[in-house]
Fold these 2 entries.
Entry 1:
Amino acid sequence: MGAFLLVYAGLFPVVNPLGTAPMFLSLTSDISGDSRNRLALSVAINSFLLLLGSMFCGSYVLEFFGITIPAVRVAGGALVVCVGWNLLNGRGSSNPETPAVSPSRLTGDGFYPLAFPLTVGPGAISVALTIGAHTSRPFTAHLALALGSALLGLFALALTIYAAYRFASPLVRCLGDTGVNALGRLSAFILVCIGVQIAWSGLSEMIGGLQEPSLVSLQTASLTW
């Protein structure tokens, strides 16, 4: 359950499907209802695959370049805090401005620009990579359970994306600009807290690594004495 909440609560504010639903509706205004529904499903699937690859493969790529997991946690946690802080103060967005495209381009596989970068932008990929590094441990039964919970969190997020885009028109009418903005600010605050927790976890591990050689030296000296 902890991994599920970490994945869903950590990625939801950055992906922000409720906030991007009006943009999705605007970009697909010239498409029929059935085509828009199929496109919403394609965007949700592509977003799930993008986040899945970032979460479970990104840490191994960093290790290939010699970057340790604790360093990724500290840097990634700081980045998550910055992203959440900017979203909290309304000074930025996790997704870059989506380029204008023709309706014929949108009826394809739904990858560009709706899945990337409108839904899953660089900020979401960074958060997914950081969460993946945060949960990286030697494989055990407990880790297998955590990975299953993380997959469920990604699946729940994909369902949220699909629902937000599938029902974008009534959702925008129901929440209004005030409701969407309030939900986004609350989610951004949760994101800041998650970033602090991830960064502290990495920092604690780095400090513990510095203390271990000192303890070994003291034990060796006591045995010699």
Note: The two ends are 50 Å apart (CA to CA).
Entry 2:
Amino acid sequence: MGKSIKYKRVLLKLSGEALLGDSSFGIDVKQAEELAERVKAVRDMGIEVALVIGAGNIWRGKEGLARGMDRATADYMGMMGTVMNALALMDAMERSGMVVRVQSPMEMRQVAEPYIRRRALRHLEKGRVVIFAGGTGNPFFTTDTAAALRAIEIGANVLIKATKVDGVYDSDPKRNPNAVKFDHITYMEALNRRLEVMDNTAISLCMDNRMPILVLNLWKNEDLRLALHGEAVGTLVSSEKPKAK
């Protein structure tokens, strides 16, 4: 018999940069296909999968704000960018054999279902992958917060922040060769030390609702699979650290 699965339902948080590939802007179709294969591997394990993806590959709101752009306008542009990314990812995932639904809290009926929590749950129960696009539907909130909110709403067992780094460090490992990686930290430690796990609103939301956050390297072939089997991979952010043995 194979190893047991630790998580029945997961929410994967991807950055828009995950779709860049070797480009500096936009959507790389080959990269979308590779992402789709990684999601398919999770779905084939019998795990229910939902996703939230950012839009940093298409739109950087900070650049607009630096030029005096209205914050709400910049945020709405970012939310629309996430819909474009979701559609590209949906297409790649459907071509790999998965059944996918995109939901958005902003009304875009030609390309996405309206976000309805009970419908999303039904899709997951039927084995469909659900991509939550459009952020929370409100400006002033990041896609990190949208991921935390949706993970809680659908009753996910864990929120997995899939990055290009193998966990959370006490400083930037690219700049500091002596940076120390955490295997397990509490929400309060992440907040107090200003570690770049997710934004403060997202971490606080997870803390209030006891939603564990797992930060791992999506591109390290075995890490995601091992984590789903309960192996110690990446950095786990939760209420309490495990007691020392």
Note: The first strand starts at residue 9 and ends at 14.
